[in-house]
Each structure stands twice: as C-alpha cells, then as structure tokens.
C-alpha cells in the first residue's frame, strides 16, 4: 500500500494550524524536506513535548515521507534554544536512512510559518499564492510527521497533545482523545483561576476566542494544539472582542499611515507585495487597487498585536477584504517577489520574549514539563479538521463504535480527512459538524 493511502486511511492532517490533509502533500518533485519544529506561538509546548518523548516517531515519519516522495535530504527547522528537543532528535537521527540536518533558528515569531521557515532554511521566497514545491520544498510539521509514522503502523489519529495553560491551576500538556471538550481539558489542568474567562483555542496570536459558556460543547480537533484560559478583562480578550464596525470606524479615523504594520509584516519582509498600510488607506479613501494586497495576508497578527502604535487591526481589515474579494471571484494577481524588501529582515524579526511581554502573558510558563493522560466520558468529534470538506458521518445515534473505527468519511482524492472514533462507546448525537460519543466499557 502506498504511503499516501496509509496516511489517508489514518486521517492525518497538518498540525501546524491549517489542518491540510497530509496525503495530498505526498507527491514527488521536491528536493528538500523541511520539518517545522519551531512551535512559534507563545506559551504552546505540545510539539516540544512530542519531540522529547517520541523522537523515533518523528525520524521514522521523515524517513517514510522522504522515501515515498524520493526526497534525498531533510532539514529540521528548530529554535536553537530547544536544547533537549534537539538532543533527542539528533540521537534518533543518527540511525536514519537519509541525511537529516538541523537548522537552528533564533527565537522569533512567526518562525514556524511555512513560508517564513522555508526562507530561513533556504533563502528562497515561495511566490505569493504559490506552494513550497515552487521552490523545491515539501514542508511538514513535526507532529504531523510523527502521525505519518504511526499511519505506517496502521494507527489512525485518535489522540493528540494539547497545551492547557493561562489562568488555570496547573498548566500542563494533556494527552487527550480527539474531540475532548474544552471543559474536560481545563479540568485536567486543575480548573480555572479567574471568575470570568475566555477560551483561546490555539495560540495567543492566531487562536480563536470562545466564550466560557461554550466549554462543554467545544470539541478539540486534530489540529487544535493549544487551550489558553484568559480572564475576560485581559487586554488581549478586550482587544479581540471589539465589534467589527468599531474596528472599521477606528481604521477610517485613526490610521496615521506610519507604515509600521508593513515594515514589520513577515510576509512583506520575504518579498511579497503585502503592504497592510495601503489596505488601511484604501479603507479610508476607497483606493480599490490597494485592496488586493490583503489576499497575501497569512493572519499572523503582528500588525495588530505588536506593530500598530494606534491600536488598530490591519489583520482584521485584511480578513474582511479577503472575504469580499474571494466572494467576488478575485485571486492573487501579483505573484512577483521583491528581494530588495528582505534586506532589513534580520533587524525586524519579532523576538518571542518581547511579544510575550506585549501580549501581557508573562505570568504564564513558557515551558511545561508535566503530562496528564485524559480519558473523558464523552468526546465531541468535529467532522472537519482543517481546510477542505467535512467528513460525512457514517454512523447513527445509538451505534456502538470502537476506538479507531471510521465515523465520518471523505472519498479518496477529496480535500478532507477521515474521522475515527476516539473512544469506545455509543454514539449519542450526529450532526453535520460533529459526532458525540459516550464511553461504554473499559478505558
Ligand atoms: S501601523 Fe497602524 S497607524 Fe501605522 S499605517 Fe499601519 S494601521 Fe496605520
Ligand atoms: S496579519 Fe498583518 S503582519 Fe501578519 S501577514 Fe497579515 S498583514 Fe502581515
């Protein structure tokens, strides 16, 4: 059986955030495999825990991908100060069937962004709207790589590590079945320590904010590696809670066109013609030709959470404009790369420590050592785990299911991933976007 088929059968999706179906990436052509081991969102430690605990799986996944895609060498992009993780991977890599090098990164955000990491390792810019393969690279997250190794052993993705931190009693990594609710994850970390709170699903820069009342029904998916509890009064929560009409009104009245958002934009600094200050200006004066820049935005959040001295939200404007342009059928037209823009890059990368201070997160640990294995009574499995189509439920309420059984299907070739039961028990609820399973029998 091909590796792509094994990975499809196991329902592996990219763990770096977007949840891209991994089997779609497994094609020949690239000359270099780059593994993203940067884990760049502040406070998250799930990838680091995996690297320390399962380095052999990471290396086995690299070997499998390289063999299937005929890639002669691999580079692991990892922060230089992840000393224990580097040591664990180096020891495992000595027995590898291909050369595996380590590219030690400075500690900056967003070092793990696919295109930023490729630039760091190769000096090449993926063209706007292009793919890593355009510059001869296949890029894969480190947890995804371990899941590929497990797929070769016939093990589907039914569990994952989630970093649970912030305003909780005992921040920890949780080894949890896919679909574990936010409420159970928070309980595994000792419960909240603040009376009113918001749940950040993901990292503080790109994560989605959810009200506390959603905790019992918010099932964590295959690509959800972080849960941060923040007080409802935390500045980050207050900032993200602004209604869009207020954000728009502030854009139109307060942007001073200082260009700081553009000067610090990581995609601009690898040569893309993404100039958020022009989008902001266009929102003021209707210069429509500048709006197309928004299509290049990866929504990293630097412009709104760090760069802008006026507290404005270029990222949110880009999101708004992108949705409108895509609804109108627009696509990226300017695919040019401007290498002159990269000259200042080394001085404009955003140090992680400064970012944590700016976000008001210094009270929380940047390294987490503990692991809690969680076996909850119920899981609420999302049927979609990233880009592409949702899985189509193939079970009904009342059905008995076992761990690893397919409960939502996609067809081979479709942009999507199979979903497997993560508990042995009974299906209690089936909806287009989720399947609830209640435990029956042993753990
Ligand atoms: S940094 Fe803020 S004020 Fe300056 S151009 Fe960008 S949006 Fe406008
Ligand atoms: S969110 Fe802002 S800084 Fe990040 S890519 Fe988009 S425009 Fe650039």
What are the SSEs and their pairings?
Layout: H1 3-10, E1 32-37, H2 46-53, H3 55-69, E2 73-79, H4 83-93, E3 100-105, E4 108-109, H5 114-122, E5 137-141, H6 142-152, E6 159-166, E7 172-177, H7 182-188, E8 197-201, E9 208-211, E10 226-231, H8 235-240, H9 244-254, H10 260-263, H11 276-285, H12 302-307, H13 314-327, H14 345-348, E11 350-351, H15 352-359, E12 371-373, E13 378-382, E14 392-393, E15 400-401, E16 406-409, E17 419-420, E18 425-431, E19 434-439
Parallel strand pairs: 1-2, 1-5, 2-3, 6-10, 7-12
Antiparallel strand pairs: 4-11, 6-7, 8-9, 8-10, 13-19, 14-16, 15-18, 16-17, 18-19
The protein binds iron/sulfur cluster (SF4) (2 copies).
The site of one iron/sulfur cluster has 14 residues, from helix 10 and helix 11.
Characterization of this structure:
This protein has 443 residues and is of the alpha/beta class. The protein has three domains: 150 residues, NADH-ubiquinone oxidoreductase 51kDa subunit (Rossmann fold, 3-Layer(aba) Sandwich); 116 residues, no CATH class; 67 residues, OB fold (Dihydrolipoamide Acetyltransferase, E2P). The chain is built from 15 helices and 19 strands. The strands form five sheets. A six-stranded mixed sheet has the order 9-8-10-6-7-12, sandwiched between helices. It has a four-stranded parallel sheet with strand order 3-2-1-5, sandwiched between helices. Bound molecules: iron/sulfur cluster (SF4) (2 copies). One iron/sulfur cluster binds next to α12 and α13.
